[in-house]
Amino acid sequence: MVDAVRYVEASIVVLIVGSLVSLLFARRRKLCGWVSFAFVCASSVYTGLAVVGGCKGASGEHTILQLPQLGSRLTLRVDPLSAIFLAIVALIALLSTLYSVRYMEHYAHDKVAKFFPVLLLCVASMTGVLVCTDFLFFLIFWESMTLTSYFLVTFESENAASQRAGLKYFIITHGATLCMVAAALLLWRTSGSFHFDAIRQTLSALLNTRPFLAHSIIFLFFLGFATKAGILPMGDWLPDAHPVAPSGMSATLSGALVKLGIYGLVRLFCSFLVVSPSLRMWGIILALAGTGSLFVGNLTALRQTDTKRLMAFSTIGQIGYICLGLGVGAYCLPMYPALASIALAGAILHAVNHACFKSCLFLGAGSVLYRTGQRDMDKLGGLAGFMPYTTGTTTIASLSIAGVPPFNGFASKWLIIAGCVLAGMRFPLFLVLGLIALFISLATLASFLTVLGSVFLGKADPDIRTREVPISMIVPQVVLAALCVLLGIFPQLMLRFVGHAVADVTGITAAGVDASRIWGGLFLIDGSPVAFWSPLAMLAALAILALLSYAIQRAGGAQVRSVPVWYCGEEHAPATVRYPASSFYLPFKHAFQGIYPSGKVHVPRFPAPLRRALDFDQWLYVPAVRAMDAAADRVSRTHVGIPQIYLLWIVVGAIVVTGILLWVKG
Amino acid sequence: MTAWLMRSFLLCLLNAALALVLSPLCEGIMRKLRAAIHSRIGPPITQPYWDLFKLLGKEDLRSAGGVVYASLPAFTLGSVLLLAALIPMGTAAPLAFAGDMIVVLYVAAMSGILVMLVGFASASPYASIGSSREMMMLLSVEPILAIALVVGAFKARTLALGGIVNWQVQNGPSISMAIGGVAFFLALQALAGKLPFDIAEADQEIMGGPLVEQSGPRLALFRWAMWTKQLVLAFLLVEVFFPWPRLGIHQLDLLMTSVKVLVVLVLVAVIDVVNPRLRIDQAMGYFLRVAFSSLAALAFAVIGK
């Protein structure tokens, strides 16, 4: 079983080599992209092999480097939990690199040398974070992931908005990293080791002996991971950073990178914290943070008119769902293991599903941006006729994120909400949280209907000339949309692996989710079967009933005729009567105004004397140059070109020299 | 296995056929009642059947193309019939093994979503306004439905609708379920698209809202879907919140349930006749208050009442 680790190492090495090689081809845009894609392909194959090896049970550990003085060693290991997240990272990295090959033509002024090599390094560090079992190296990988993603967010050097968003990202995430460093050092001081196992033991010992310190450490870790995951209020960097990054990077950020925060939270709360009563309190905190995040995130998404900003806010919202599931799971872990396994499976499944549909949505928004140069929904409309594939994939992804059955978003939301309601039968707070989650799922639908309604559906202006994006950009979108459908109809495929991961990481054996039948449905078991979802039966019934309805529709043999839209007898250009995105659901938006206060980051200002002292131009160079200039001016005034004046100077000079000589002699 | 599958399949079709056949009849009775309150004679009770019959043969005018646009009416009616197969209507639901209460909530919203999509796709500004209003109504009404059903799930300790109904039958009336039932009834008025909440369609104002561009057989399917939906939801209300008395004789129980459903629909029709249309913000405020009041049902359920 050591093989799984070897594959991951190979994958990381391939990515680092690929990053260097693609740098060699940086002059030629497309070639650089294809070379990077080839390396990402190879690394994804290795990661895929590692995932296959690691998804059933943990692999052996492999130590690469020993630092006994620090009590640290670079040890890698693949277990079922990291295998699931590795699969997400590999898939999203592969598809967004393929997408970016052509997409990067969009940025004519910036070199791709700043993009592909850094993207590969970013993927390598994400892979490293997932397999590391030592906190020192975990933090090193984590930091390199943060730095590389910072460079990718600020890719557009001429764009002030992207620089500002990057600065915000840099400051907030480094604050978070600092919290994690502090927590790791506090633990290291007690145990003298950075290894995960040692940390787990130290933490459980501290919880008994020094509970205040232990809870502070947990809180610091929570802050660090929650910031990366984008849980409000720490996730404030997210809605600024996502829209300004190149779309391939937005998809990677939202699909893979923020998931690592979730990975950290799962590790922290399900694996590091032994099953103890304090876990219940942290479960409630997590669930409340998640609910707040999903409420504010999704309702703020509703108010956006910029496609990518809308999707960024909705990422905050969906991460809220995952966090809610984690919270319910953590709460139930000590007492109701079956319920805990339901909620945790829902949370991890939602992380996988979110990677599929949100990346698909970002790539769709990128395709629209690539062809029209527009992110503002008020200025777009009727693209369905020009971009059929992008429209189709975005529609599927939108319905998935809104949780319309039988797409994949529904399966995971169903697990999370069912987990909430079932846990709510023991602790009624979760009932309310589950109801909020249900309500917000409709608000998500509303915000993505805005995207569909205003960008793709309706009539286009007659003077619009645009077409579908190239095939290398369509393929990633289609693959992700197909996954949304497949994982929606067969959630069991993924749930089996998720079940392994939950059992492995928490050590509970009670199975709350019965996903054994591939053709039958899902059962939730809480003593007896209490909840059912059978996508295949539902889909078959819907198909038959829809066919029946279609038969009724055609029964009369009615003629079909295409007609123009009826504007009450007047003629209008489509653009003048279009219902703009900013007008959708206005009364509803008014009701939720100002639930998201956002601060703007200004460039830090130095104190005035220091600034003056550092400004050499002001007090050194400019005065010196001015003085030289003036001196030269004076000298040149003597050279006027008239012989008499020169003679006069000679006479005056002779008198002065004679005078001096006489004075010296005398 | 095959026999069992065939049986649930046939039951599913039977349920769908019954819902399809009965729903225009209920609409006819509601129209007759409205006419009576207006002191008119009104159309015959069979009029909705004739309406559908005539619409199915009329020309199908389309303002947008595409396979998806063409298939939306069939999926709308199909999703309502799917809802009918998930809900116990007199007997156990044929698809009860495939979906619980949460699935029912999402499937109930599906027809609304498809109608909104048709509105946006038909490119008419009136349809877009109607779809936007439909979404806001859905946002205000679905939470009430969810709260009412979650109360049932909390009391019965299961998410299966059949289980909730059985629990209700065995344990008799309770304060929490009564409050939940009333809240559900208030929401039903909006889900059926009746005054004072027919804001999305608002014929006199935006000419049918999302359906302004629909004609002929497409309009027939959407109409039919709406009528079927109100019937199915009335069944859900009666079965989950007011299932008593159960006599144990199957036919008699079915008859009793049907009579209760008719009473509910008559009440809906009466409220429809005597009210003017609200503005969307007024309706949202109203349902917000209803939603918060129905949280009381949850509170009662938690203390065991």
Spell out the blueprint of helices and strands:
The complex is a heterodimer of chains A (666) and B (305).
Chain A: H1 3-24, H2 29-54, E1 62-67, E2 72-76, H3 80-103, H4 116-131, H5 135-153, H6 160-191, H7 196-209, H8 211-229, H9 238-244, H10 247-272, H11 278-302, H12 307-332, H13 337-372, H14 388-401, H15 408-424, H16 429-456, H17 471-489, H18 491-506, E3 513-514, E4 522-526, E5 528-533, H19 535-555, E6 560-562, H20 574-577, H21 586-591, H22 608-614, H23 616-638, H24 643-665
Antiparallel strand pairs in A: 1-2, 3-4, 4-5
Helix pairs in contact in A: 1-2, 1-4, 2-3, 3-4, 3-10, 3-13, 3-17, 3-18, 4-5, 4-10, 5-6, 5-10, 6-7, 6-8, 6-9, 7-8, 8-10, 9-10, 9-12, 10-12, 10-13, 11-12, 11-16, 12-13, 12-15, 12-16, 13-14, 13-15, 13-17, 13-18, 14-16, 14-17, 15-16, 15-17, 17-18
Chain B: H1 2-37, H2 47-57, E1 60-62, H3 67-86, H4 101-121, H5 125-156, H6 161-171, H7 175-191, H8 203-206, H9 216-241, H10 250-274, H11 280-302
Helix pairs in contact in B: 1-3, 1-9, 1-10, 2-9, 3-4, 3-9, 4-5, 5-6, 5-7, 5-11, 7-9, 7-11, 9-10
Could you say which overall geometry of chain A the principal axes of the C-alpha atoms support? Answer: globular
Helix content of chain A: over 70%
Strand order of the largest sheet of chain A: 3-4-5
Poorly predicted tracts of residues of chain B: none
Q: Report the total helices of chain B.
A: 11
| Uncertain residue ranges of chain A | none
The mean pLDDT of chain A is: 86
What is the end-to-end distance of chain B?
42 Å
| Structural class determined from secondary elements of chain B | mainly alpha
Outline the structure in words.
The complex is a heterodimer of chains A (666) and B (305). Chain A is mainly α and 666 residues long. Helix content of chain A is 71%, strand content 4%. In chain A, the strands form 2 sheets. Chain A has a 3-stranded antiparallel sheet. Chain A has a two-stranded antiparallel sheet with strand order 1-2. Chain B is mostly helical. Chain B has one domain (10-302). Chain B is globular and about 55 Å long. The model of chain B has no long low-confidence stretch (mean pLDDT 87). Chains A and B meet through helix 15, helix 16, strand 5, helix 19 and strand 6 of A and helix 1, strand 1, helix 3, helix 4 and helix 5 of B. Strand 6 (560-562) of chain A pairs parallel with strand 1 (60-62) of chain B.
